[in-house]
Design goal:
about 40% helix; three-stranded parallel β-sheet; six-stranded parallel β-sheet
Length: about 350
């Protein structure tokens, strides 16, 4: 193996930091042998913090309406072919009740940026979940909102917020999003979430149109410096009703490689093995866990709407990725040496540089 790349892996393991040029070299230098080494180091780093535990989150996709027109997303407002739906408060609570019975202690409410879900409505839903299930965590993934909105939802009981930054390169961001969405505002939202007090998650697509080793290096450096508690990455998969319909999907191999790098950047990160990994590869989530991930998010949404939440082509939405198949999930994780645990799976504090 290339000695320079091996030295970068050693440096990352020891210092949890590389320069932009070094991250770029690591991205460009990916080989199966280097990926295997990184996965081994990532596994050791993850086990030192979390052992062999895999945390489950019950995913509730509350709305497929979205005001935005992002070029990569099947929920974009100009997709006239999309079947839209919006869950009621009772339906969302019913999903949470079913999930609680199945052993889930974190619920993730995810949706497009749907103006129907005002602060008043969302706060009522969050309060009801926290009142009925006080031992559970509530994670929101509902896009860009005002700082006042984030604060109101936090006061209502929301614990965590996922807002993928998608890319840390401003020019690349503009290629992926419509003109009315701005890189600066996405960064502002992430900063606001941190100031409010949430456990914050960011993340990016792997293999998105226009992505390069240079832009990926910026993503890795951003995660290093922003220090999120969670980071969600998954391969880009095109959707037939978007401008990127004919673009190539990202790769499972590169996604897993970058999961390993992220684990070494912050050993205490909560890293999901995403549905997109499972969509491109039947064993994609197992591969993600073996590369350093430690979270899976089975679907708790009503069966009748799962196909309608079509972010990309072929999104798996029934069968073993569903929350109802807990036994299947337990067996799949056990087969690779991990165990699914019933807990909130709170993020461990990420040590500051002086504590490393």
């Amino acid at each position: 193996m290339n000695e320079h790349l091996l030295s970068l892996v050693r440096k990352l393991k020891e210092t949890h930091s590389l320069s932009l040029a070094e991250y770029r070299a690591l991205v460009e230098g990916q080989t199966p042998e280097l990926a295997a080494l990184l996965a081994k180091e990532a596994d050791e780093a993850r086990r030192a913090v979390y052992g062999n535990e895999v945390f489950v989150r019950g995913l509730i996709e509350i709305s497929s309406f979205c005001k935005n027109d992002c070029r990569y997303c099947g929920l974009r407002r100009s997709n006239g072919q999309a079947e839209r739906y919006r869950l009621t408060e009772d339906e969302i609570l019913s999903c949470a009740r079913e999930g609680y019975g199945l052993g889930f202690r974190t619920f993730v409410l995810q949706g497009g940026e749907d103006a129907w879900f005002t602060d008043e409505r969302l706060c009522a839903i969050v309060k009801e979940i926290k009142t009925e299930f006080p031992d559970c965590a509530v994670t929101l993934s509902l896009g860009e909102r005002s700082c006042e909105s984030y604060l109101a939802l936090y006061k209502a009981g929301a614990d965590r917020y996922l807002l993928r930054h998608e890319t840390a390169d401003e020019e690349h961001y503009a290629k992926l999003h419509p003109a009315e969405l701005h890189f600066e505002n996405r960064m502002r939202c992430l900063s606001d979430l941190r100031k409010v007090g949430y456990a914050v998650g960011c993340g990016f697509m792997v293999g998105s149109p226009g992505q390069t080793a240079k832009t990926l290096a910026k993503d890795l450096k951003f995660v290093e410096t922003f220090r999120p508690e969670m980071c969600g990455i998954g391969p880009f998969i095109p959707h037939h009703a978007t401008p990127f319909a004919n673009e190539k999907p990202g790769s499972v191999e590169q996604t897993c490689y970058l999961l390993s790098v992220l684990r070494l950047i912050h050993p205490s990160l909560l890293l999901p093995a995403t549905t997109a990994l499972g969509t491109l590869d039947a064993r994609g989530r197992e591969k993600g866990i073996l590369a350093g991930a430690n979270v899976v998010m089975p679907n708790l949404s009503p069966v009748g709407v799962r196909k309608k939440y079509e972010l990309y082509n072929g999104k798996i939405c029934t069968g073993e990725e569903s929350a109802q198949c807990r036994d299947c999930l337990d067996l799949r994780m056990k087969s690779i040496g991990y165990r699914v645990v019933v807990s909130r799976g709170d993020p461990k504090p990420i040590p500051r540089k002086g504590d490393l």
